[in-house]
Specification:
The chain is an alpha+beta fold. It contains two helices and five strands.
Length: 122
């Protein structure tokens, strides 16, 4: 988020799902073996998707192996952080967030299925 006012930062910390840019929405994928993957959708093609998890880990899954792919409509930021930190720690966190530059990753590329001229031949 680009807001740097303490009140706005506090609101987003206390309610991480208040506003979620599209590139930060959490997705859940389930493969045909019943394994579940979660993360933000960072790349997609007509044959695969890539979900990015914490610590820059990612999973690339073939669409043909997916049973289900759905958005949770929620942020990856955990809820209830205020229960785990003191008021002083929260104030320190807000002060720190005011000093860092906001960097927003690019939104996922649109699915390219051959809609551009020259990609498909009759």
């Amino acid at each position: 988020m680009n807001a740097r006012e303490p009140e706005a930062l506090l609101r987003h910390i206390l309610d991480p799902n208040f506003y979620i840019p599209p590139q930060f929405v959490q997705y859940v994928a389930v493969d045909h073996n019943g394994r579940t993957y979660t993360g933000i959708l960072t790349d997609q093609t007509s044959t695969s998707i890539t979900l990015k998890r914490e610590k820059d880990a990612s999973d690339t899954l073939l669409r043909s192996n997916l049973e289900e792919l759905s958005s949770t409509g929620k942020s990856l930021m955990p809820e209830g952080l205020e229960k785990k930190v003191s008021k002083r720690e929260m104030a320190d966190l807000i002060a720190y967030l005011q000093t860092v530059q906001a960097t927003v990753p690019p939104a996922p590329k649109p699915l390219d299925i051959g809609t551009r001229p020259g990609l498909m031949e009759p």
